[in-house]
Design brief:
Layout lengths: L2 H41 L1
């Protein structure tokens, strides 16, 4: 068993998952902020 290779594969996989989650989260935050901005402009 090549543990270094397995560890590298595991870390790369988790990093990709975390990156996917982070991008999805930031997109949701951006949409929320945009809707909030629209609502504020609508109120004025």
């Amino acid at each position: 068993m090549n543990f270094r290779y397995l560890w590298f594969r595991h870390t790369r996989h988790t990093r990709n998952l975390r990156n996917l989650w982070h991008t999805r989260n930031s997109r949701n935050l951006r949409n929320l902020r945009y809707s909030w901005y629209l609502r504020q402009s609508w109120n004025t």
